Amino acid sequence: MNFKKYMSFRAIAITFFSCLCFNVSVTAQTKSAQDLYQRSLAATCANCHGTDGKGQENASMPKIDQLTSEQLLTQLKAFKSGARTGTIMPQLAKGYTDEQMQTIADYLGKKQ
Ligand code: HEC
Question: If you measure from the C-alpha of residue 19 to the centroid of ligand 1, how many angstroms do you get, rounded to a whole number?
Answer without folding.
Answer: 46
